[in-house]
Amino acid sequence: MISLQDIERYYQNGFTKTYILRHVTTEIKEGEFVSIMGPSGAGKSTLLNIIGLLDQPTSGEYTFLDQPVQRLSEKKRSELYKAYIGFVFQAYHLIDELTVYENLETPLLYKNVPSSERKSRIADILDRFNMVAKKDLFPNQLSGGQQQLVGIARALVGQPKIILADEPTGNLQSAQAEEIMQIFKQLNQEGITIIQVTHSEKNAAYGNRILHLNDGKIVEDLRVESIA
Ligand code: ADP
Ligand code: ADP
Question: Which residues form a coiled coil (predicted)?
Answer without folding.
Answer: none
